[in-house]
UniProtKB/TrEMBL annotation:
Protein name in UniProt: EmrB/QacA family drug resistance transporter
Source species, domain of life: Bacteria
GO molecular function: transmembrane transporter activity
Region of interest (Disordered), residue spans: 475-498
Organism, as annotated: Streptomyces rubellomurinus (strain ATCC 31215)
GO cellular component: plasma membrane
Main location: membrane
A single BP term in Gene Ontology: response to antibiotic
SUPFAM superfamilies in UniProt: MFS general substrate transporter
Residue ranges of domain Major facilitator superfamily (MFS) profile in the record: 10-476
A Pfam family hit: MFS_1
TM segment ranges: 48-64, 76-95, 101-123, 135-157, 163-185, 206-226, 238-255, 276-298, 335-356, 368-391, 411-433, 445-468
Keyword Transport: yes
Length: 498
């Protein structure tokens, strides 16, 4: 890594915090049948074991990012880790479905504080240049590896010691990070001269009306989308939730235009880098989360793999993900950020198009291994570059908010994508079941989801090229001073990160 020792140690602690958040997102997927039997969940209740965490996480990320900017990021990170560890411990001890789902809500609340604060602290540790590029490479590696390793650990722990240990393990990990935080991560936000009597934190007040409005809007949106998978798009509850989300989002836009201390300042979105980066990240997220949903299902329900074998099958994807994250800054310096993002998105699209050829009588080696490597490489490189793009050139007091925003767009994009792709796969499977065997019908549904995902990423690659001609500074992250980047005229190229 060639990073100074103290910076490298601090980055490792922050990356471990991000890893635990991503781990909790996917670690339950393989264990859902055992969890359902263990606490007596209904079919809809089983869905909410996953959705309760993702719903609260996605809805409160913006509030978590702003809280870190105003109250101090290391402090908010500590609070988030404490809530996250407590929620994980309660989930592992849960004896009823209500307690388990409530514990998952507490986990999501903690994660919404952890993710933006940890990312902002990591960015603060490194000035613009190669060091920051390598740091974001590490961030991309642990984020992708957390999702992939969650499937592996979930299968191994469930098979060896039972499903409660998937939550106990996450609780132990969060507690260890919380213990290391005060000693190993400096108060980077307390050293900035942000104004009198601010303690180095961003000046201003917390935007309570904006926070409540956008949180309710995102809650209605994600709840409506996830409920539509089971109830149908014409269900009154679904239509009511989506309509409420539209009204609340419109109200949020009006509130933010009028408040001096807005949760999402309009000036933040006027910079083409932030708006464009978050749009592209939302599209990437719509495919990312769905991938880790459908691939284990194909391995277990069609290929007949057990929980442990399914988890082990994710290791090549995780390894490719970590490799791609380390390569991303080097590729960006060599061929430019625009070409790197475009190539990464097309590589992932190629892997998903390969997955669209899976067979009911297939095998892991023939149908899953090769495309998993392509998907892992493309996914990690695109994640690193788009994260840097969405946060590049911002003043220090806005990095926590920008970190919350880019995580929010990925989570909300993932909820939208998963709902749409699950609906597509379900409808294709239902039609195919009238004239095909059960496994063949399931496979047809999964193939349609992977095909649609590949099309989304191909369109995202094209959009990235178009946006590169309209947004972002001419200067690179490695060479431009902060003031110059803030005032530079709009260019024709994405910035080179790293």
């Amino acid at each position: 890594m060639n990073l100074p020792h103290r910076q490298a140690v601090a980055l490792a602690v922050l990356a471990a915090a991000q890893f635990t958040v991503m781990l909790a997102t996917s670690i339950v997927n393989v264990a859902l049948p055992q969890i359902r039997a263990g606490v007596g969940l209904s079919e809809s209740g089983t869905t909410w074991v996953v959705n309760a965490y993702g719903l609260v996480f996605g809805a409160l990320l913006l509030a978590g990012g702003r809280a870190g900017d105003l109250l101090g990021r290391r402090r908010v990170l500590g609070w988030g880790l404490g809530l996250f560890a407590a929620g994980s411990a309660v989930a592992g001890l849960a004896g009823s479905s209500g307690v388990l789902i409530a514990a998952r809500v507490l986990q999501g609340l903690g994660a919404a504080a952890i993710a933006p604060a940890a990312l902002a602290l990591a960015v603060d540790l490194f000035p613009p240049g190669p060091g920051r590029g390598r740091a974001l490479g590490v961030w991309g590696a642990v984020s992708g590896a957390g999702g992939a390793c969650g499937v592996l650990l979930g299968g191994a722990l469930t098979q060896a010691w039972g499903w409660p240990w998937i939550f106990h393990t996450v609780a132990i990990g969060a507690a260890l990070v919380l213990f290391a935080l005060p000693a190993l991560v400096p108060r980077t936000d307390s050293a900035r001269p942000c104004g009198p009597r601010t303690g180095g934190r961003a000046a201003g007040r917390f935007d309570l009306p904006g926070t409540v409005t956008v949180t309710l809007a995102l809650t209605c949106l994600v709840w409506g989308l996830t409920t539509a998978r089971g109830a149908g798009w014409t269900d009154d509850r679904v239509l009511g939730a989506l309509g409420a989300a539209a009204v609340l989002l419109a109200a949020f836009a009006v509130i933010e235009r009028r408040r001096p201390d807005a949760l999402v300042p309009p000036r933040l979105l006027r910079t083409g880098r932030v708006a464009a980066g978050n749009l592209l990240m939302a599209l990437l997220g719509s495919v990312w989360i769905a991938l880790f949903f459908f691939l284990p299902l194909y391995q277990q329900q069609v290929l007949g793999s057990g929980p442990l074998a399914t988890g082990v099958g994710q290791l090549p994807l995780a390894a490719a993900n970590m490799l791609g994250s380390t390569l991303a800054p080097r590729l960006s310096r060599r061929i430019g950020a625009t070409a790197t993002v475009t190539a990464a998105l097309l590589t992932e699209a190629a892997g998903l198009l390969w997955l669209s050829r899976i067979r009911a009588d297939g095998s892991y080696l023939a149908d899953v291994l090769g495309p998993s490597v392509l998907v892992g490489l493309g996914l990690s490189i695109a994640f690193v570059q788009l994260t840097a793009f969405a946060m590049e050139g911002l003043p220090p007091q806005d990095t926590g908010l920008a970190g919350g925003l880019v995580n929010t767009t990925r989570q909300v994009g993932g909820a939208i994508g998963l709902a749409a792709l699950a609906g597509l796969a379900g409808s294709v499977t239902a039609r195919a079941a009238t004239h095909q065997a059960h496994l063949a019908a399931l496979t047809a549904g999964y193939r349609s989801a992977f095909t649609a995902s590949a099309a989304v990423l191909a369109a995202t690659a094209l959009l990235a090229v178009v946006l590169a001609r309209c947004t972002g500074p001419r200067t690179t992250t490695a060479t431009a001073p902060a003031a110059g980047r803030a005032s530079a005229p709009r260019p024709r190229r994405l910035p080179r990160t790293g």
